[in-house]
Amino acid sequence: MSPRAYPIADFLEASPWAGLCLAADDRILAANAAARALFGSDPAGRPAIAVLRNPEFHAALEALDSGAPSGRADLTIAAPGGRGHFIIHVTRLSAKGERLAFFEDRTELDQAAAIRRDFVANVSHELRTPLTALSGFIETLRGAARDDSTARERFLSIMDREAQRMMRLVSDLLSLSRVEAEEHRAPTQSVDLVALARRAGETVRDQADGAGVALVLGPAPAGGAVVKGDADQLLQVLLNLLENAIKYGGGTAPACIDVTFAALPHEPKLRGPAVALSVRDHGEGIDPLHLPRLTERFYRIDGHRSREQGGTGLGLAIVKHIVNRHRGRLKITSEPGKGSEFMVILPAAPPERAG
Ligand SMILES: Nc1ncnc2c1ncn2[C@@H]1O[C@H](COP(=O)(O)OP(=O)(O)O)[C@@H](O)[C@H]1O
Ligand SMILES: [Mg+2]
Q: Full-prediction pTM beyond 0.85?
């Protein structure tokens, strides 16, 4: 049976890409659902030039008319369905001059490539600064400061700090890539967030004391605070949030950080019972302008201050990925001058079956 026994529209519909069938006179004979979405209405019956004005597209069609079996055009389309980068693949369909055009959407790939490029540029930049400092000090220690023991001690301690910073950066990059690699595997342990918060509190106690900040842990909710999770990763979430609250939320000491828990019988976005953990500081707060970008890699409100404190700019990006892996939500709210609240909402663990 010849394939033409089927209507061409059925073939078009099978493609995930927007697709058009064009007559010899460039009128559109049929369009699939993706094309209807792209152009905002059904373009069937209209001349192609009225739907898509790009000269590259029409040049590719003309090349078919002069004998080429197929062709492509690389173009940016501003259509009702959104602006995007497409590679259009055109093929001759029959001797009657009908042609098919499929629109390969490259927009997301372009975006991913841009993110990758930015990321590599950011990492290189973050590493270059401490490396430049280190090699400068090595040179000084070999030359001018060779016999100056006071200068040597001072330089060595700066070098130590820079080396620590690089180490933290590399270890944050590694945790980020580990979390990303596991993001699609749901965690399976049952984790008690209250016990975990106590452990995290112990870990940052010295840092908090040094900053004159008191950690105040709230009581466990009546139903407990057990979630299905990965204990190591959730500990990392707590540590990153507590460290931030100590570093940026201290305000004028003495200050306090409140860690509270709540059981939510039904969290609408998670569609089920959940546990909310919140880390609230009473520091200077965050301008709402920054909130949407805070979890981006290397996004800092004050880069200088973050680096001074040994920050890598990756802490909240790691938090966000871990929360995503746990199918949870991260809610950041802040009132400038009054402090910030970082709330992590995680699906509650189903009750243990008896026996
Ligand atoms: N509790 C907070 N109060 C005010 N600003 C904060 C707080 N937590 C995070 N930030 C801001 O968000 C930025 C990103 O945080 P993070 O990803 O942990 O990186 P880092 O702490 O290494 O700078 C910080 O540099 C800081 O500007
Ligand atoms: Mg941090």
A: no
